[in-house]
Write a structure and sequence with these properties.
The protein is an all-alpha fold and about 80 residues long. The protein has 4 helices and no strands. The protein has 2 domains: about 35 residues; about 30 residues. It is about 70% helix and about 0% strand.
Length: about 80
Amino acid sequence: MLQNLSAAVEKTCHQHRGCLRKRAEEETAAEVAEVPEGIPMLLPPAELPRTQIIERTRHRYEDIHRLLEKRWTISAIARG
């Protein structure tokens, strides 16, 4: 049951990544606007936790860039 829930959440996040990204950008812009001048802004942690989704995304990213280095087109990579 947890695996099904995980898959459903991942699918939903993937389908709504555009609006999620837009919302995150809006929140980031609002946070930057709230920081007073002269006070350093804290950066997020350098590394995300090692979850299955993050690892799979990292591997896909590496695979895509490996194929781009071999001069594959984006459409060819998407079909592959």
